[in-house]
Amino acid sequence: MGTGARWLLNAQLQFMSNIIEEAERRRTFAIISHPDAGKTTLTEKFLLYSGVLTSGAGSVTARRGGRSTSSDWMEIEQKRGISISSTVMRFPYRDCLLNLLDTPGHKDFSEDTFRVLAATDAAIMVLDAAKGIEPQTRRLFEVCRERDVPIVTFINKWDRPGRDPFDLLDEIESDLILEPTPITWPVGESTSFAGVIDRIRGEYVEFSRVAHGSTIAPEQSHPIDAPELVDNELGAEALEGVELLDGVDRIFDRKRFEAGDLSPVFFGSALTNFGVGRLLDAIVDLVPSPPPRTDIDDVPRPIDAPFAGHVFKVQANTDKNHRDRIAFLRVASGRFERGMTITHGPSQRQVTTKYVHSVQGQDRETVDEAFPGDVIGLVNANGFRPGDAVYVDEPVEWRPMPAFAPTHFMVARVLDTGKFKQFRSGIAQLDEEGVVQVLRVPDVGDQAPIFAAVGPLQFEVARTRLESEFNAPVELGGTSWSVARATDEASLPELRGLRGVQVVERSDGSYWVLFESAFRVRQVSEDKPDVTLERLMADEAVDSFGRRV
Ligand code: G4P
């Protein structure tokens, strides 16, 4: 081999190992919790500990001071003080880069919730120490469980009177069928919360309070037999707790964690910053780095293959000053560089990537390069849909994004028929973004489409956006439909005209059948065995109340 060729080969090898190394530094995760458990506070403290925020004085929690949170992007969110859209934050911690995908905190589900959770490698389940597992936590947990997403548990608000720690562990185990394995164990509780015993490192970590939790809380490590622990009543009690845990073999097992069967548990207080550093350490040490993504034929695309990404969310109007539309994509392989021309798989269109963002704290910033596990936002990504593949050099097609089974259906009618054109383009856009799924009744078409959603808040978002963005106010009318099934063209003649059954067409040309109840679905399948009625994804997993069905 000539010197030139050897040099090129070496450069190539160097380039590939760099991609693998960069991927290994990434941790991509989400926080799942019930509203008020402390997700926003914890997010802010993550930014504080990473050095992105120099003081904890609310960048993320600024909403309480009247400013919008980093993830607020629509007026209705601000009015309600809730966040219904998702953003991505990237921040460094130790020698890693952490990508935190923000799941909506509201009690209503939207497709976004599922989509975001489908793009994470792990979830931090934040529980309020006084409340334990609450309904929204359970629902989000169920979505994670469907994909065997590893879960790290953070029992928050330990600085306040809460429940007995064993009682909380018992609830996790019996309610979620997930084995809780404490990595840290609290010493004291409420105002006497002084630190934690770290079972893996075998040390006592004493915390110090800082004013308003606005700087990193200093930690002092002591050996497990240090007088600070053993000669102290609370310490001795905590040691007894640890002995009990050891006695029942609650030992951390990485394989079982990665399979989603076991959850390492951390105790702390996001408000006082106690335990936040340990939790971040756990994310770095325990959460797996991005694995290769499998394509439509189940073949994994190697991490160091040429750049490919997977669109998991499309969002409009993230910035009030610019009417824009961002496609969020997760890098699956290779190195992304700003300015690169990438191919949008489904349309085969070449797209230049001059405008690319990541979100850091409150601010969007331009990304110059990204690696597997990172999430980037492509601005003005017209025609992009969740599930789409983008790539360079080696084409790839991902498995389609599951169509999540809607359980809520409403008929939309434009109030001013003179605005019909605006209405049509509005519903096409909302459909494409997955804000609602737009279903057309054959022969009625766009006059009175049916909006389908997994949570009722989606209707409100759709209505507000049709009015404010498209100048097409609508009225939404209730329907009696509650269950959808997929069908095929051959089954249509048999289904049409059946009582309590509505055939509808989706924008991709496929057909769904709407029913008033699961009972009616069963009746029709029994009466018409030749008719195709397929369950939609997540239908089997959770119903609208989050129960397994
Ligand atoms: P969320 O995003 O999950 O909805 O919860 P968020 O962080 O907004 O926290 C909800 C409330 O719980 C806030 O109080 C917050 O300060 C408080 N909180 C969060 N973590 C802790 C903790 O570790 N200990 C204690 N004691 N409280 C915690 P708030 O009254 O709504 O707001 P504020 O007036 O305190 O800012």
Give a written overview of the molecule.
- An 8-stranded antiparallel beta sheet has the order 18-17-23-14-15-22-19-20, covered by helices on one side. The protein has a 7-stranded mixed beta sheet with strand order 2-3-1-4-5-11-6, sandwiched between helices. Strands 7-8-9-10 form a 4-stranded antiparallel beta sheet, with helices on one face.
- It is built from 14 helices and 30 strands.
- By secondary structure, the chain is an alpha+beta fold.
- The N and C termini lie far apart (63 Å).
- The chain folds into 3 domains: 263 residues, Rossmann fold, CATH 3.40.50.300; 98 residues, Elongation Factor Tu (Ef-tu), domain 3, CATH 2.40.30; 140 residues, 2-Layer Sandwich (Alpha-Beta Plaits).
Topology:
Blueprint: H1 3-24, E1 26-33, H2 39-50, H3 75-80, E2 88-93, E3 96-101, H4 111-117, E4 122-128, H5 135-146, E5 151-156, H6 165-176, E6 179-182, E7 184-187, E8 195-198, E9 203-207, E10 219-223, H7 227-230, H8 233-247, H9 254-258, E11 262-267, H10 276-286, E12 293-294, E13 300-301, E14 308-316, E15 325-333, E16 336-337, E17 341-344, E18 349-352, E19 356-360, E20 363-366, E21 369-370, E22 375-379, E23 389-391, E24 408-414, H11 420-433, E25 437-439, E26 450-453, H12 457-468, E27 474-478, E28 483-487, H13 492-495, E29 501-505, E30 511-515, H14 518-527
Parallel strand pairs: 1-3, 1-4, 4-5, 5-11, 6-11
Antiparallel strand pairs: 2-3, 7-8, 8-9, 9-10, 12-13, 14-15, 14-23, 15-22, 16-21, 17-18, 17-23, 19-20, 19-22, 24-26, 24-27, 25-26, 28-30, 29-30
The structure holds guanosine-5',3'-tetraphosphate (G4P).
